[in-house]
Amino acid sequence: MEGMHIGLHSKWILYGYTFNSDTLISAWIVTALLVVAAIAIRFTLRIRPGLFQSAIELAFEQLDGTLGERLGDKGAKYFPFVATLFVFILCSNWIGILPLDLKPPTADLNTTVGLALLTIILVQAFGMFEKGIFRYFHRFIEPNPIFLPLNIIEELAKPLSLSVRLFGNIFSKETILLILTGLVAFPLIFPIPILALSILIGAIQAYVFMLLSIFYISMAIEGH
Amino acid sequence: MLKYINLGLNLVMPAFVGLVIGVFLDNIFRTGQLLTVVFLFLGILSGLWSLVKAIIEIEKEE
C-alpha cells in the first residue's frame, strides 16, 4: 500500500495563499472542454438534427421540463444557470473515469463549497429580485418572529449540506477505487464494477445537486 | 422525491452550523461554553423545525 495517498493534493503557494493545483487543473480542463464543446455544437447545429444533436436536444428538453414542472413559466429565466451547473458537475464527476490521471474537481471540498455558496447566494438574489427585499426577508420571521434564529441557521446549513453531499459521494468513490487498485496484484478487473458504478454516481449526484438548486430557487421566489 | 433526499442531512447540518457559530462566538466574547450550548440547542431545534416543515409540505402535496 506504499505510495497511496487519499485526500492529499499537490499544492501551489501564491502570495501566501495555498491552491490545490490538481483540483484547479482538472477544473480548468473541464471548463475548457465545455467551452470548446459548446462552440463546436453551436456551429454544427442543423435544422434536421443528426444523432448527436438529437441526443443533446433531448437532454436539454428533459432539463427544461424539470425546471418548468417546479417553476412554471419563470423556469426559462433560470435555465442557463441550472443547466451550466448540471453540465459542469456532471463533467467534473466523470473526468476521473478517463485514463488521464486527473482527479475529479468535485472530490475536493473547496470546489463543492464554492459551487454550493454560489448557488445559495444566487438563490437569495433571485428571491430578492422576484419578491422585493422586504417581502423576501419576511419569510425568515414566518410563522412567528421567535423562529428567526431557527430559520437563519437553517438557511446557513443549506450550502453545507449541498457541498458535503456532493463531496462525500465523489470522494468516497475515489477512495474505494484507490483502495481496490492497491489491494489486488493486477488492478485490471476489480475496479471495473466500481468504475461502472461511478458513471451512475456521477450522473445521480449532478442531477441531485441540480434538483436541489431548483428546489431552493422555487422556495425563494415563491415562498412556502 | 426531493424532500426525501433532503430530510437526513437537513436534520443534522443545522445542529453542526449551530455548534460552529456557538464556538466562534464563545471565542470572541470569552464566555466559556455558554454560547456553544445555546447555539447547539438552537441548531438542533432548527433541524427539527426544517423536518416539521418538510413533513407539513409533503402532507399538503399528498
Entry summary:
Chain A is mostly helical and 224 residues long. Chain A has seven helices and two strands; from the N terminus they run ββααααααα.
Please give the radius of gyration of chain A in angstroms: 20 Å
Give the mean pLDDT of chain B.
88
Domain count of chain A: the total is 1
Strand content of chain B: under 5%
- Series of H and E elements of chain B: HH
Oligomer category: heterodimer
**Main sheet characteristics of chain A:** 2 strands, antiparallel
Number of domains of chain B: 1
Helix and strand content put the structural class of chain A at: mainly alpha
Report the uncertain regions of chain A: none
Helix coverage percent of chain A? over 70%
List the total number of helices of chain B: 2
What is the H-and-E element order of chain A?
EEHHHHHHH
What overall form of chain A do the CA principal axes indicate?
A: globular
Which pair has the most extensive contact? A-B, 17 and 21 residues
Structural class of chain B: mainly alpha
Shape of chain B: elongated
What does this 3D model show about the protein?
The complex is a heterodimer of chains A (about 220) and B (about 60). Chain A is built from 7 helices and 2 strands, in the order ββααααααα. Chain A is mainly α. Chain A has one domain (about 10-220). A two-stranded antiparallel ribbon of chain A has the order 1-2. Chain A starts with 10 loop residues before the first strand and ends with a helix. Chain B is mainly alpha-helical and about 60 residues long. Chain B has helices spanning about 1-30, 35-60. The interface of A and B includes residues 149, 212 and 224 of A.
